[in-house]
Amino acid sequence: MSDIDVLPQPVIAALGLFAPLFHDDAPYAGGVGAAWAPGRVNLIGEHTDYNDGFVLPIAVDRVIAFAGRAREDTQVRLWSSHFAEYALIALDGLPESFDEQRARLPSWARYVLGVITELVRAGVRFSGFDAVVHGDVPVGGGMSSSAAIEVATAQACMLFSRGSFTIGAQDATFQPVEVAALCQRAEHIASGVRSGILDQAASCLGRPGKAVLLDCRSLEYRYLPFDAPGFSLVVIDTNVRRELAASAYNERRSQCEEAASMLRDILTRAEPQNSSNKAIRALRDVTQEQFARYGSELPATLRRRAGYVIAEDERVMETVGLLEKGAVERVGPLLWLSHAGLRDDYEVSCFELDTLVEIARQVPGVLGARMMGGGFGGCTINLAREDAVEVLRQAVDEQYLARTGLRASIDVCRAAGGPGSAI
Ligand code: GLA
């Protein structure tokens, strides 16, 4: 139960929308409640998650909320305020009816269906519900609105399941990282993208004033201070979305898998006495030093992909060291380097992202910036001194439109808490 005063604003708005939108005589069970989950930024560690590596995300003060009531039957009726449309999901027949239901749902509701399907597959039984879906995570804007809707769905199902399963407490049915893994599987079946666990874990594990270091292999995590007074996290959206992103993402993932398996064979042949070489399963297992010695044996494209990932994992650990010392301003140079690697070696940036990073680079007081997320559009993350934010905003306003013909959207975010619910 949460105090109404501390409910995120979109939760209050969603609660206000429910009664006017669902006023028929549905067979309701129990009162009105709300559940929500945040979007995220990723400070550093891009495209490392599906390489079993490390990421350093921060949940932000933007959420997607469900407000509604449990039903006595097995219907889930949803209204999205952003898309201004209803969607209907039937719990009966899942998981078998997944493909047929997915085909007739709008894309936002496919994420909800994905989570519900994975909960059913995990053996959880729950009743239907009606809910309004409302939020302030920019949709498709690089703060992972899809992970936020997935994690909020899991919270909503728990809330409206009236005790049939729980999340989070020590003896709960699901621990937060298990919910993240379940939502990651939901994302795969909903979107067809073989994404890593970064976005869902970031949403599940958020804490005010903290970044989370996540080991994407063991799923162990720990919190690092990120309440740096005097510094701001600025997210700038290129307002470019490219269809190519999904197929390019899956292609990068396959290239990394191929590079890891080739490096295992190369290293095993070159150093048979070192038994750990045979155990290389992912790029995470290859050190910078091994890569410097044997990377040249890879075909050129795979060499660039692997080189970026191995260096990026190292940058995550360097950033962790700096945050532990409270040296936030020294994180900046690592962000520029991360961007250069994503642009030149991993090749997931684009003209608009590079333009935003170049503009940021000329603003004194911007300590570092880089593209964030999958790439080919979406947004950049900028670490700036508070007093540089307005100058950055002006520079983007003046130059981005002139250079790209597009308008960028600028958002200043804070490190905020994870999912929640209230009756
Ligand atoms: C997307 C995916 C994540 C991660 C990032 C790149 O956001 O959903 O799993 O791979 O791209 O770091």
Tally of alpha and pi helices: 12
State the separation between the terminal residues, measured CA to CA: 6 Å
Helix content: 40-55%
Q: Give a count of the beta strands, DSSP E runs of length 2 or more.
A: 12
Global morphology: globular
In brief:
41% of the residues lie in helices and 22% in strands. It has 423 residues and is of the alpha+beta class.
Topology:
Blueprint: H1 9-21, E1 28-44, E2 54-71, E3 75-80, E4 85-90, H2 98-103, H3 107-121, E5 129-135, H4 145-160, H5 176-191, H6 198-205, E6 210-215, E7 221-225, E8 231-237, H7 244-270, H8 288-294, H9 300-324, H10 332-344, H11 351-361, E9 366-372, E10 379-385, H12 389-404, E11 409-413, E12 420-422
Parallel strand pairs: 3-5
Antiparallel strand pairs: 1-2, 1-12, 2-5, 2-6, 3-4, 6-7, 8-10, 8-11, 9-10
Helix pairs in contact: 3-4, 3-5, 4-5, 4-6, 5-6, 7-9, 9-10, 11-12
This protein binds alpha-D-galactopyranose.
Task: Report on this structure.
The chain is of the alpha+beta class and 423 residues long. Helices cover 41% and strands 22% of the residues. The chain has helices spanning 9-21, 98-103, 107-121, 145-160, 176-191, 198-205, 244-270, 288-294, 300-324, 332-344, 351-361, 389-404; strands at 28-44, 54-71, 75-80, 85-90, 129-135, 210-215, 221-225, 231-237, 366-372, 379-385, 409-413, 420-422. The strands form 2 sheets. Strands 1, 2, 3, 4, 5, 6, 7 and 12 form an 8-stranded mixed β-sheet that branches. The protein has a 4-stranded antiparallel β-sheet with strand order 9-10-8-11. A hairpin with a 4-residue loop joins β3 (75-80) and β4. α3 (107-121) packs across α4 (145-160) and α5 (176-191) packs antiparallel against α6 (198-205). The chain starts with 8 loop residues before the first helix and ends with a strand. The mean pLDDT is 95. Alpha-D-galactopyranose (GLA) is lined by residues 46-47, 49-50, 195-196, 198-199, 373-374.
